[in-house]
Amino acid sequence: MTSNMKHKDIDTIIFTRGKRGFNSKLQPDHYHPFYELIHVNSGSLRFLLKDTLYNLDKGDILLIAPRELHHSQYYADVNCDLTFIYFKPEHLQQEIRSVFRAARPNGVTSYVGTVPHIYQDELNRLFNRLQTECNSIDELSPHFMSLQLSEILLFFMRHSILDCQELDISTAKEADILLATKYIYQNYKKPLTLEELASVSSLSPTYFSKKFKQVTGMGFKEYLNFIRLKNAATALYSTDSTITDIALEYGFSDSNYFKDLFKKEYGMSPREYRKSRGY
Questions:
Q1: Which residues pair with 176 in a beta bridge?
Q2: Residue 172 has what pLDDT?
Q3: What pLDDT does 121 receive?
Q4: CATH number reported for the structural domain that contains residue 61 in this entry
Q5: 269 FRET partner, CA 20 to 30 A, in 36, 58, 73, 201?
Q6: Residue 227 is part of a domain; what is its CATH number?
């Protein structure tokens, strides 16, 4: 993967609040090896998560799982106030870590939902407490941060609902490329070609290749391999299939090539990753 697509790792909980809008610096598709939680305090925006485009409004939350491709898109003349929390499962209290993992029985998954207005004041109090401790009051702050992050996630589990609007990608200015990325997510196990994806997008292969890189930040083949590797990684810790069978099932014609790509992306061999069970 290209370096601008993969953000550096973190070693502690990070809490930030910020204003974003149409003139904010745009990022192409990117991912990171930790969770990102976004809460919309005010305003609205479009958000592309994997192959789905969402409209997010005040009160909406987005929990982005590690290694999920995503990027935000802002409306003209609409400013957003957003809360961001970055964390890893090991930053949670042990008991909550088990609850958090149990809520995702099929592995590491993202979540899009909303918190009803009646609970927003309580949520803001939780955010404020975490933000205060993130300023490192004393040596106990890391422990309070862990407790408060755990409380925030439990709050979302109890009070949030699946109520975010999916948008018709045909209305987006990058509709042709979004059609291609959705096609990749739906057909990544097949031997896809540049020409096939260009046809899906109704573009010439040359122009498609150039525009795909501009919109996603990755070349077509790089993007395809990323999706294949991520799904193969899930299969490694959720099935008993052999590594060779997984490589073949998830679109790689050569298991050694799969192993090389996997180690480059995940920093360990498929066998080592399987032993770690993905956590």
A1: none
A2: 65
A3: 93
A4: 2.60.120.280
A5: 36
A6: 1.10.10.60
